[in-house]
């Protein structure tokens, strides 16, 4: 994120459009209302995250709009874009462990 807090990538913009429910290093739970019963969006989300080898798994629920992202923090933080996004998530998650 820029010093002004303005998103500088498509992924940063996308992260700001979802509900960040929980953060634990290596696991992030998001909710996207638009994902409910939307298989086309699910496919887009899977493709978006597949572009990042630092992310180990993404689990989606079309019934609830839940997105669970799994990663190894030490690997993810080597990517400066993803590190910034993780920092944003840490400060905006409703629940942090």
Account of the 3D structure:
The chain has one domain: Alpha-Beta Plaits (2-Layer Sandwich). By secondary structure, the chain is α+β, with helices and mostly antiparallel strands. The chain contains 4 helices and 5 strands. A hairpin with a 2-residue loop joins strand 1 and strand 2.
List the helices and strands and how they pair.
Elements: H1 10-15, E1 19-24, E2 27-31, H2 39-50, E3 55-61, E4 66-71, H3 73-76, H4 80-92, E5 95-96
Identify low-pLDDT runs. none
Helix content class:
25-40%
CATH architect. name: 2-Layer Sandwich
Give the N-to-C terminal Cα separation.
23 Å
Biggest β-sheet description:
5 strands, mixed
Q: How much of the residues is beta strand, in percent?
A: 25-35%
Order of helices and strands, N to C?
A: HEEHEEHHE
Secondary structure category: alpha+beta
> So what's the oligomer here?
single chain
Strand elements, count: 5
* Helix segment tally: 4
The CATH class is Alpha Beta
Radius of gyration: 13 Å
Average pLDDT level: 90
Shape, per Cα inertia axes: globular
How are the strands ordered across the major sheet?
Answer: 3-4-2-1-5
CATH-defined topology: Alpha-Beta Plaits
Number of separate structural domains: 1
Quick synopsis:
The chain is an alpha+beta fold and 97 residues long. The chain is built from four helices and five strands. A five-stranded mixed beta sheet has the order 3-4-2-1-5.
């Amino acid at each position: 994120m820029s010093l002004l807090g303005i998103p500088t990538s498509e992924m940063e913009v996308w992260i700001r459009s979802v509900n960040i429910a929980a953060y634990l290093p290596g696991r992030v739970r998001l909710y996207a209302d638009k994902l409910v019963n939307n298989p086309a969006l699910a496919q887009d989300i899977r493709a978006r995250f597949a572009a990042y080898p630092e992310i180990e798994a993404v689990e989606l629920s079309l019934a609830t709009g839940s997105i669970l992202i799994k990663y190894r923090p030490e690997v993810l933080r080597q990517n400066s874009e993803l590190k910034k996004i993780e920092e944003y998530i840490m400060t905006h998650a409703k629940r942090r462990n």
